[in-house]
Amino acid sequence: MKTILPSHTSSLSRLNRILSNRDFDNARFFILVDENTYNNCLAPLVSSVARLQEAEFLEVPVGEECKDLAIAQQLWETLLESGADKNTILVNLGGGCVSDLGGFVAAGYKRGIRYINIPTTLIGMVDAAIGGKTAVNMGGCKNQVGFFHQPTITCIEPSFLDTLPDEELFNGVFEMLKTFLIGNPEQYQALTDMLLSGSFEVKPDMIAACVEIKNAIVKKDPKDQDIRHILNLGHTFGHAIEAFSHRQGQALLGHGMAVGVGLICALYLSVKKLGLAAEHLERYRQVASKLVQLPHYTLKDTEEILTYMRQDKKNASGEICCVLLQDMGAPVIDIAVDENEIRDSLLKIK
Ligand code: GLY
After folding, report:
1. 128 CA → ligand 1 middle, Å
2. Boundary of a domain, candidates 148, 163, 178
3. Does pTM top 0.85 for this prediction?
4. CA of 66 to the centre of ligand 1 (A)
5. For residue 331, how far is its CA from the centre of ligand 1 (angstroms)?
6. Is 178 a pocket residue for ligand 1 (Cβ < 6 Å)?
7. At which of 104, 128, 163 does a domain end?
């Protein structure tokens, strides 16, 4: 597993060099795209990476809609009909939905072929495209069926971010904030200083720092048995807040935005239960409010959010469990929180 991190030379030109290597002599490449990456990212990729000039491409619908078993089956059938063998390499050019689906297809095809992730969104670069979690959705729930299958290469090319709307960038910024909260207080300080000063330019070295933290965690626990759970800081709340935002009349929140709001609850409970200094919660709340309109929940809303939280896959023996912080850079997993504490934290978001 190799990650091509942003540096002074273009990541695509380094990918070009790697794919010219003997290990890839017999490879046949298919590029998985959606409409956005077909229009905005395919041409720069193919013009920079010689081995991909002959690649065939496969297009799937934009967004969560593509993470569907029927679409995975169509892709497997297309690969079979094209005579794709074990030397086939699937190149996933897109955000988290494309890499989740493409990784899933690669994991299942011929019991596992190689794949390359080329994330084109910030959330893909700092989270989804790294770590080998692949999945499709089922029964209206996200990521219900999937495999751990590590990409052979993840190539992070920050220039793809130039085509993204701010809202999509902010989804990724929240995942960066989460990663720095658990793994690098100095980078957290630098990123929050930048955001508080009103600048939203995501620097390539910050992306690289984030990826290095995630890679180190995944290396320790590739199958998500224990320590990797720390990456879920803010997610027990975030998943429920995201699902609730899809209800009629609510402001729709993307995954990163919902996690960003969930982080306020997690930090609030970290202060109450683990003695995290309250100044960290206040600073984070200030930063978050620059990126997303903080929701004001009623008691009735908190009951609905709680129903989603009760279904969370990380809960043990009927208790809702969260990752919390005892200090900056010091996460603790499996902290049981009772329902009144959850209601209280949701009511105190704003
Ligand atoms: N997104 C969390 C993980 O990869 O474990």
Report:
1. 7
2. 163
3. yes
4. 20
5. 15
6. no
7. 163
- For residue 248, the model assigns a pLDDT of 75
Whether the CB of 228 sits within 6 Å of ligand 1: yes
pLDDT (0 to 100) of residue 313:
61
pLDDT digits (tens, 9 = 90+) for 46-79: 999 999 999 999 999 999 999 999 999 999 999 9
Rounded to the nearest whole angstrom, what is the distance from the C-alpha of residue 122 to the centroid of ligand 1? 15
133 lines ligand 1 (CB under 6 A): yes
pLDDT value for 170:
96
Does 154 share its domain with 181?
no
28 pocket-lining for ligand 1 (C-beta < 6 Å)? no
Q: Are residues 96 and 139 in the same domain?
A: yes
Q: How many angstroms is it from 132 CA to the middle of ligand 1?
A: 9
Q: Which atom of ligand 1 is nearest to the CA of 232?
A: 2
Q: Is 87 exposed, middle or buried (0-12, 13-18, 19+ CB in 10 A)?
A: middle
Q: What does the alpha-carbon distance between residue 269 and residue 340 come to, in Å, rounded to a whole number?
A: 11
Same domain for 228 and 146: no
Contacts of 178 (CB under 8 A, 6+ apart): 231, 233, 234, 259, 263
Question: Does residue 244 register a pLDDT over 80?
Answer: yes
Same domain, 305 and 179: yes
Domain that holds residue 81: 2-163
- Residues 123, 95, single domain; the answer is yes
Tens of pLDDT, residues 187-201: 999 999 999 999 988
As given in the structure block, the two tokens for residue 252 are: 């729709």
Higher pLDDT, 1 or 97: 97
Residue type, 228: R
**Distance, CA 254 to ligand 1 centroid (Å)?**
16
Residues 114 and 182 in one domain: no
| pLDDT tens string 110-148 | 999 999 999 999 999 999 999 999 999 998 888 999 999
Report the C-alpha gap between 236 and 241 in whole angstroms. Answer: 9
Closest Cα to atom 2 of ligand 1: 231
Q: Based on the fold, state whether residues 237 and 330 are members of the same structural domain.
A: yes
